[in-house]
């Protein structure tokens, strides 16, 4: 770990070259934020009701038009007398008293499709309200196949949402492992190529099930690009700047989230929106596909024994930062000398598997704790959102509130996690999540409206902070040789938590209360486990599994004069 730090310092430290590369890595986050935030927009459900069918009405009512036809065809529900979304009125067959006023005798399912209140989330056409005129091969005329993911087919919407999140989960796990085997840059470029192709294919999807498969695969490739970019950026930064540049990337992702509704209102068609997203991803590939903007991580190259390639990149860093690689001082050798010695001992690359965690004493435990905290932070978010906005058809309020709180969480972490430490802030965030969730779970029906609103916003903010800090802490705890796979598992756990919300929607939210109870219990359990984590503020990134096992914990009260620098468990020693 010391050798890598000395080489990076001799190559100009966190100088101009590395600063520019780290800052440039923020811009792709706008496109990734656009892609990740598209899920609630594409699956927004507008208000709808059955299309009236005059053929089902009595002869005396078939001449009605406009609102009168709607009143005679669709039943009204609730005090607001809103049209029923899934039913038509049923009238008896005309009998022997044709002069009597016709009265409905029951209800029946829709027969001619639905009418929607559009635009929905800025879109006139979305996968939920898909309506296109295509040529029918059987009749030779035009027919209008509609996906109409409402009523009997409404379960397909949460299924698509769940598949997209599971795609991100699979991409985090598989492509995170690829980051440790093929490098951060290789996975990033390949993921962008696949994401561009799959994004364009989504815009051409001919059926719902084709869209389902493409969204699953697209989510996986976006996860690979996000993960490779996150890890490479972190390894570019020195300890004092890791937090600021990581959270800055989160703010740029929020910018993409905020831009998406405006783009939707501009194009008003989900296919055009997906095509535009694929175009933006392709533009990323055009620029960040070159090594000048996205070089391979020298930390990973040094940790895996690829000294020759690492030497070339470090030499470039030194020259771009205005450092002469030939200069040396009385205390230190020149970078050229260090790199020459390094290249002379170059051997075959040595790669490591995530299964190496099984032979560690503390790193596997740290990863498990952070994985569960990420799971809770991602899963309990839906509970706070539903307490904040109970209506299913509300889109803009929860969308912008969640984006705003995500930006607020990033700013708060920038202000506190370096000053107070990662572990105390994660402990405080988990405590707030648990308390807010407990109060909403136990007394929501007894609390005033403003209290429920305050607890929902506070819990949502804390859950965002817990998710972001769990991923950052995982990147600082896992060693370089398996950092991609380790961070992928923790990040994937967060997407697994987010996938549980649409899972309960498939069954009509009947499991929502149980889900809330489970995540609240996990939050309280994680509150105790966070105390076992090491403090990584200001420390160099561990390179090997042995380095990761030597990470020390510090007391929560940083002002305490007697600090315990002993790990809770003894580090493992290779025999």
List the helices and strands and how they pair.
Elements: H1 2-10, H2 16-24, H3 27-42, E1 48-50, H4 66-73, E2 76-77, E3 82-83, E4 87-90, E5 106-109, E6 114-116, E7 134-135, E8 142-143, H5 156-182, H6 184-203, H7 208-236, H8 242-267, H9 270-288, H10 298-303, H11 307-320, H12 335-344, H13 363-379, H14 381-388, H15 396-416, H16 422-443, H17 449-477, H18 483-506, H19 512-529, H20 545-549
Antiparallel strand pairs: 1-6, 2-3, 4-5, 7-8
Domain Major facilitator superfamily (MFS) profile: 106-537
Keywords: Membrane, Transmembrane, Transmembrane helix
GO molecular function: transmembrane transporter activity
Top keywords for this entry?
Growth Hormone, Chain: A; about 60% helix; 20 helices; mainly alpha; two-stranded antiparallel ribbon; about 575 residues; MFS_trans_sf; elongated; Solute carrier family 22 member 17
Explain this structure.
The protein has 575 residues and is mainly alpha-helical. Among the domains are: 48-90 and 106-116, no CATH class; 352-575, MFS general substrate transporter like domains (Growth Hormone, Chain: A, Up-down Bundle). Helices cover 59% and strands 4% of the residues. It has 20 helices and eight strands. The protein has helices at residues 2-10, 16-24, 27-42, 66-73, 156-182, 184-203, 208-236, 242-267, 270-288, 298-303, 307-320, 335-344, 363-379, 381-388, 396-416, 422-443, 449-477, 483-506, 512-529, 545-549; strands spanning 48-50, 76-77, 82-83, 87-90, 106-109, 114-116, 134-135, 142-143. The strands form four sheets. It has a two-stranded antiparallel ribbon. A hairpin with a 4-residue loop joins strand 2 and strand 3. It is elongated. The model is unreliable at 133-145 and 558-566 (pLDDT under 50).
């Amino acid at each position: 770990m010391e050798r890598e730090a000395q080489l990076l310092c001799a190559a100009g430290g966190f100088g101009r070259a590395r600063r520019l590369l780290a800052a440039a890595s923020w811009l792709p986050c706008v496109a990734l934020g656009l892609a990740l935030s598209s899920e609630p927009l594409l699956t927004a459900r507008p208000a709808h009701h059955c299309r009236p069918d005059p053929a089902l009405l009595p002869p005396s009512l078939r001449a009605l038009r406009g609102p009168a036809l709607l009143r005679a065809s669709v039943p009204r529900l609730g005090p607001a007398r809103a049209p029923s979304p899934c039913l038509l009125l049923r009238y008896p067959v005309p009998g022997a008293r044709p002069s009597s006023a016709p009265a409905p005798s029951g209800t029946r399912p829709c027969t001619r499709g639905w009418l929607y209140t559009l635009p929905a989330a800025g879109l006139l056409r979305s996968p939920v309200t898909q309506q296109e005129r295509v040529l029918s091969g059987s009749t030779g005329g035009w027919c209008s196949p509609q996906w109409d993911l409402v009523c009997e087919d409404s379960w397909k919407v949460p299924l698509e949402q769940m598949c997209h999140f599971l795609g991100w989960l699979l991409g985090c796990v598989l492509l995170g492992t690829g980051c440790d085997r093929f490098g951060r840059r290789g996975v990033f470029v390949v993921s962008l190529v696949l994401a561009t192709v799959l994004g364009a294919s989504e815009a051409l999807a001919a059926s719902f099930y084709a869209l389902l498969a493409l969204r699953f695969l697209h989510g996986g490739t976006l996860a690979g690009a996000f993960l490779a970019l996150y890890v490479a950026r972190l390894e570019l930064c020195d300890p004092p700047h890791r937090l600021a540049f990581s959270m800055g990337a989160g703010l740029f992702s929020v910018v993409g989230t905020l831009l998406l509704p405006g783009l939707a209102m501009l194009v008003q068609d989900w296919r055009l929106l997906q095509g535009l997203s694929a175009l933006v991803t392709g533009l990323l590939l055009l620029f960040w596909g070159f090594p000048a903007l996205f070089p391979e991580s020298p930390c990973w190259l040094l940790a895996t024994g690829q000294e020759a390639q690492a030497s070339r990149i470090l030499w470039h860093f030194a020259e771009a930062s205005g450092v002469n690689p030939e200069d040396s001082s009385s205390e230190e050798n020149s970078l050229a000398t260090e790199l020459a010695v390094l290249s002379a001992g170059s051997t075959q690359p040595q790669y490591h598997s995530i299964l190496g965690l099984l032979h560690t004493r503390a790193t596997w435990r740290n990863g498990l704790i952070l994985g569960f905290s990420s799971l809770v932070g991602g899963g309990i978010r839906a509970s706070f959102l539903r307490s904040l906005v109970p209506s299913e058809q509300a889109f803009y309020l929860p969308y912008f509130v969640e984006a705003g709180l995500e930006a607020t969480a990033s700013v708060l972490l920038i202000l506190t996690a370096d000053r107070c430490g990662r572990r105390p802030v994660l402990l405080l965030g988990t405590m707030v999540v648990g308390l807010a969730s407990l109060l909403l779970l136990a007394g929501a029906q007894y609390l005033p409206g403003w209290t429920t609103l305050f607890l929902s916003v506070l819990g949502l903010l804390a859950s965002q902070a817990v998710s972001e800090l769990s991923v950052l802490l995982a990147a600082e705890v896992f060693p370089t040789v398996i950092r991609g796979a380790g961070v992928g598992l923790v990040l994937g756990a967060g997407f697994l938590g987010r996938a549980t919300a649409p899972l309960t929607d498939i069954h009509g939210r009947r499991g929502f209360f149980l889900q809330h109870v489970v995540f609240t219990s996990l939050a309280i359990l994680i509150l105790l486990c966070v105390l076992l984590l090491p403090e990584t503020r200001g420390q160099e990134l561990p390179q090997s599994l042995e380095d990761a096992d030597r990470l020390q914990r510090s007391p929560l009260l940083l002002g305490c004069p007697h600090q315990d620098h002993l790990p809770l468990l003894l580090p493992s020693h290779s025999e």
